[in-house]
Structure formats: structure tokens, C-alpha cells
Amino acid sequence: MNTDAFAAHESNVRRYGRSFPTVFTKALGATIWDETGKSYIDFLVGSGALNYGHNNPSILGPAIEYLAGGNILLSLDMYTAAKRDFIEVFVDLILKPRGLSYKIQFPGPTGTNANEAALALARKHAGRSSVMAFSNAFHGMSLGSLAVSGSASTRALGGVARHDVIRVPYEGYPNDAFDSAGYIDHLLGDPGSGIEKPAAIILETIQAEGGMNAATAAWLREIQRICRKHGVILIVDDIQAGAGRTGDFFSFEFAKLEPDIVCLSKSLSGSGSPLSIVLIRPDIDIWNPGEHSGTFRGNNLAFVTAGAMCKMWSHDQFTAGIERTTAKLQGHLDRLIAKFPQFIEQKRGRGLMAGLKCRSQEIVGNVHDFAFQNGLLIESSGPRRDVIKILPPITITDDELDHAIAILENALQEQANVEQGSF
Ligand SMILES: *Cc1c(COP(=O)(O)O)cnc(C)c1O
User: Fold this and answer.
1) Mutate to test the pocket of ligand 1, among 138, 142, 213 (most ligand atoms within 8 A of CB)
2) Which of 141, 177, 292, 400 has its CA 20 to 30 A from that of 30?
3) How far is the CA of 418 from the centre of ligand 1 (A)?
4) Which residue out of 264, 266, 267, 277 has the highest number of ligand 1 atoms within 8 Å of its CB and is therefore the one to mutate?
């Protein structure tokens, strides 16, 4: 396998290539192949950007037709037929059936572009500069987003001051006995708390990079109630947990939330093509025309594939399949936890956005390496990288899922054998 070009010429910053040192060429559904023809089940799926699998034919079919047809590819934020079709499908098939009503902003193509736009709008609307963000949050790599992220190394990145962020504990931080929502309510209501009232609270319903920490419906509803009580905008960063990842389209549906602003990206295009949107409660949409602008906010190929992805959600067979897969995955994970309590501390996440909190980073490293050698791509998360991230495509077949879990089980068994051998 020739990886010389990467080692010689690509920046030292490269990460996943080091984690999976092979050269990939082809992919279909949950399976990805390298240059030697070796296959892997993909449980990383572009960190949640390929929820519908690689090269999903229902999504790519319309894109191939669009590409071959001499249609518009880049349009800034001009009106195009592809963009109109996407807006109509998104409103009719995603928002309306869920009783949601939002204006749609097209920011730059990445997730962090959506968060920056959301934070800027919330600050403009409130006329206040600070925002509240949580322990272990991850919101992206541009200055505003890394300021609200929790990880010390992420926040240090910009090399400039990161003002105007009030850090508060997420649910379960530092432990389950602490009432974080009650604390936030108290902070916001107490004139002696020493904090500036924030423009917004930004949160993930499941902190993926932060260790697959899943908030409960009760906590999320309480945070929403507190936001409304104190006149603070609730921003849900649904970049990784949304667009189908948990098994519902939005990650907050199970809690019946109606956030003021929602950021979507990663799997929104359904194809891996970059696309982000910011959903804005109509009365908050106080942008002036052109006030927030940029080049790559008219990726028409992504509009086409996103529209095809949205249409999948109106098929009962599709949603029933996700429910079945979720139950199957959760059953497998419960079994692994019962079998390997010496390695796995806790199940994390929710639905198809799952995690296994292990007892050490070393266990996770060993499992990762064994899995890679045996044909499964998994990654770790959490501040101590001791959580195995389990993100199968939500469209994974039963056979692929069983096969991947068997590799994971063998990896854990191998770990047990090694430990036994060492006594
Ligand atoms: C990936 C991610 C982002 C950043 O998205 P980019 O496209 O990498 O800028 C922001 N928030 C969450 C929760 C994410 O998972």
C-alpha cells in the first residue's frame, strides 16, 4: 500500500489517515474497500456525514441525472430550480409532519459555518454578546464555534481570546447527583450570580465528540423552559445527531422540543456532499438582505441529493427498517456489555448514535486496532478517548450489522484472552 504521498506532502495535521493506514477506493452502503480489495464495515461514516450509507442509489440516482443534464452547480444564493425543489421537499416532508415552522438560512457549506451564523444571529437579536455553552461540547473549528466547545485543546486552537462564553455543566456533569438545569436556572435568575445574561444557550442533544453523552428528554425540556423563562434563545447544534442519526430526523423529536434555532449539516445532503442549513424561528429572522454572505451557499448537487434523502422519510418501510435496526443494535450492545463488564463500563448515546464507555483509553485503542485489521472502522471519542463510537449507516443491512458486531465482539474477546494470558 503506497502512502508515501501523504507522508511526504500532506500536513502533519492529518488524523484519520493515521488511524486507518490504508488507501480507500470504493464504497457501497455500509461497506468500504481499500486498494487491495479488502473490505471494511464503516462504523464511522464520515463522523455522521454518511448516515444513509455510501453511494445510496436512491440519493445518487437523481444526482447523476442532474450532473449529466447541464444543470446549475453553483449559484451563490440565487434562486435555482434545484434549490426551490429542496426547500419545498424539506418543508413538506420534514418540517410540516413534525409540526415545525422555520425560515431556512443557507450559510457556508460546513457545520461550523451554520453554528457561526446561528450564534451571530442570536447575538444580534438579543443585543447581548455572551452565550452559554456546555462542558464537553463540540461545535466546530472556526473561532466562534471553538469558543463554545468544551475541550481544552480545541479552545486553545485559535490562539486569540475567546470572550463571551459562559461554561455550564451538561446533564450528568460532574455526576448524576448534580442538578445542572437547576443551577442554570438559578444563575440566570440571580442578580448576584456574576454572569452577563447570555443571548443564547447552544447545546447538542447527544455530545458525540464529548463522549456520546445523551441528554434525557426531561433535561432538554427543562433547558427549553428555562430559556423561555429568561428570554434566552435555544440553539440546538444538530449537526451530528440530526439528519436521521438517532433514528428520528431531528435528534430532539423524542423530547418534543421546539428549539428557536437548529443547525444541520453532516448528513443533510445524504451523499457526503457539503451542505448546511440554519433553521430559524420566523420572528428571530432579523437578518438584513445580504448581511451574512459567502460563496459556497448554493451547492445545487447537494440540494438534489438532500431532496432525495428527505423523500426517504415519507416511506413507512424506511422508518420501520430504522426502528428494527435500532432494536437490533441496542440488543447487540446490551449483550456485549453483559459479556465484557471488565472492559465496558456503560452504554452511551441513543438509538443508532451509540457509544460504549470503556474502562480505559488503552482498551479502546486495542479494540480499534483489532477491528481495523479485521475489517471494521470504528473511532473513539470523549475527553479521554475512552468511548467507542458506534455510528452504523442507518440503512445498514442485518448481515452487515451482525458481521460488524461479530468483529467488535472478537476484538473484545481478544482483549480478554490477552489479559488472561498475562496472569
Ligand atoms: C462535526 C460537527 C460540527 C462541525 O462541523 P464541520 O462541518 O466539521 O465544520 C459542529 N457541531 C457538531 C456537533 C459536529 O459534530
Assistant:
1) 138
2) 141
3) 37
4) 266
**Burial grade of 242 (CB within 10 A; 0-12, 13-18, 19 or more):** buried
As for how many domains the chain has, the answer is 2
- pLDDT tens track for 24-59: 999 999 999 999 999 999 999 999 999 999 999 999
Residues 380-402 have pLDDT tens digits of 999 999 999 999 999 999 999 99
Provide the mean pLDDT of the chain. 96
Report the separation in Å between the CA atom of 192 and the middle of ligand 1, taken as the mean of its atom positions.
35
Helix (H, G, I), strand (E, B), or coil: what is residue 201?
A: strand
Distance 119 CA to ligand 1 centre (A): 14
C-alpha 107 – ligand 1 centre gap (Å): 14
For the segment 95-107, the average pLDDT, to the nearest whole number, is 98
Q: Which residues line ligand 1 (CB under 6 A)?
A: 47, 110-112, 115, 138-140, 204, 208, 237, 239-240, 265-266
Q: Are residues 287 and 153 in the same domain?
A: yes
- Residue 274 CA: nearest ligand 1 atom is 7
Count of CB atoms situated within 10 Å of the CB of 25? 11
Do 332 and 242 fall within a single domain?
Answer: no
pLDDT over 70 (residue 3): yes
Size of the chain, expressed as the number of residues it contains? 423
Ligand 1 atom having least distance to the Cα of 241: 13
Please give the residue range of the domain that contains residue 410. Answer: 4-56+316-421
Residue 138 and residue 237 in one domain: yes
Q: Hey, how many other C-beta atoms are within 10 angstroms of the C-beta on 391?
A: 28
Exposed/middle/buried for residue 254 (C-beta within 10 Å: 0-12, 13-18, 19+): middle
Rounded Cα gap, residues 268 and 114, in angstroms: 12
Q: Is the pLDDT of residue 157 over 90?
A: no
* 222 vs 157, higher pLDDT: 222
